[in-house]
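Annex B. Sample input.
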Amino acid sequence: MRFRAWMIAPLALFCLCAGLVLSGVTTEAELAVYDAVCELLGPVFRAVMFAFTTLGNTGSVIFILAVLVLLPWTRKRVGLPAALAVTVSWILNTALKFLFARMRPDVDRLIEVSGYSFPSGHAMNNLTLYLSVLLALLLIVRSRSAKWWFIALFVAVPFLIGLSRIYFGAHYVTDVAAGWSLGLVIACLAHDLYFKTLLPKWENRKQGSAT
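Annex B, continued. Sample output.
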C-alpha cells in the first residue's frame, strides 16, 4: 500500500470542507442550495432521489457486500477487497462524526435521519463500496467497452446517492464532498493493500500448504 501524489487533491478537499464546517461560513449558502433544489425539482426527481438514498442505506450496503462475499466467483477478487475498504470507511466515518459533532441541517426534511452530519456516511461508504468493486472489476474484465460501462455505472451510482442526501436535507454540500473525498482515498489504498499485499500472501500460503 503506497500513498500516491494524486491523493493530495481529495485530502486537500476534505481539509477544506472540514475548515468550512468548523468556521461555519458556508452554512447559510449551503442551506440556500437546499432550498433552491427543492423548489426547482418535481415529484419525479424526488422518486428517483428516494430510490438512490434507499440504495445507499446501511442495510443495502451490507446486503451487497454479503452477496459479493458469499458468491464463490466474486468472493476473493471482488467481495473481500470491497468488504475491507467499506469496513475501514465505516470505522473512520463514525470516528469523524463524533469528532466534528456537526448537527444536521435545520430544515424540513423529507426523510427521517439521526446522528451527526459530517462527513456523510452515505457518500463516504457508498463511494468506497462502488469504487472498490469497480477497481476489482477492471482487473477482471477484458472488454474495453464493458470497462467503460462499468466506470459510468459505478461512478454515477455513488454520485446520485450523495446528491440524494443533499436533496432530502440530510446533509450539507460539504458533508457529501468530504465523504466522497475520503471514500476515494480509502477505496484506492485498500485496493492496493489487498491486491499487492494480502492476496499474494494468501495465495502463497495456500500453495505452500498444498505442497
